[in-house]
Amino acid sequence: MSCKEDRGTVKIVDGRYKPSGKFHYPAPNTPIWNDKGELAGVTNPRDIVHIHSYGGEAIFFESLGKGKLMASRCDNPDCETKGSIYMPFRIHCPDCLFKNTVLDITDRAKNNAIVHSFMITERTGAFNTLPTPIKFVNVEFDGVCTILMGALIRGEPKMGMRVVPIFKTKNPDYIITDMCWVPADWPADDLPEGYTY
Ligand SMILES: [Zn+2]
């Protein structure tokens, strides 16, 4: 039996595997061949669950599934930058390290968000779930001192164009893709499955 070209092989040097090629087999007991075409082992897939704790950001992710965009604001009277509103959500003020106040900016996002800049990419990282090409937009909100990156899921991006958020209110995943962007006035019946204004 010979090595299949689309599978990884190992070179065994001093009893240690030096892998090359593809090794992500979803099935158990897939043979692994060495560079001479001899059996070197089998796959033994394992699942791990990494518990990613949201801590003080939980309110942000939970709100997306309810169609709400939560920002945060420094209300420390002694802070030089008091009143600054942060989106992406920041648990603490970067200037005074005071705990920020949670602030609902859903209406602001629906009425006053524009594309500050954008980029389009064909190549993605591992585990990407967005359709390619991905149109990343940096969204600017009226009165917010930071800019939020998101995905424009309908239409073509242009600098200065008005965009509105859409939320995955049906079966939310509690991750950032629960919110995407579409051009203002995009028809509500042409949103991705599970998303609403
Ligand atoms: Zn502050």
CATH architecture of the largest domain: Beta Barrel
Class from secondary-structure proportions: mainly beta
Strand order of the largest sheet: 2-1-3-4
Secondary-structure element pattern, one letter each: EEEEHEEEHEEEEEE
Short description:
With 197 residues, this protein is mostly beta strands. Helix content is 7%, strand content 32%. The chain has two domains: 9-42, no CATH class; 55-196, Beta Barrel (OB fold (Dihydrolipoamide Acetyltransferase, E2P)), CATH 2.40.50.
Description:
The chain is mainly beta. The protein has two domains: 34 residues, no CATH class; 142 residues, Beta Barrel (OB fold (Dihydrolipoamide Acetyltransferase, E2P)), CATH 2.40.50. 7% of the residues lie in helices and 32% in strands. It has two helices and 13 strands; from the N terminus they run ββββαβββαββββββ. The strands form four sheets. Strands 2-1-3-4 form a four-stranded mixed sheet, with no helix packed on it. The chain has a three-stranded antiparallel sheet with strand order 6-5-7. The longest helix is centred in the first third of the chain and has 7 residues. The protein is elongated and about 70 Å long. The mean pLDDT is 92. It binds zinc ion. The site of zinc ion has 8 residues, from loops.
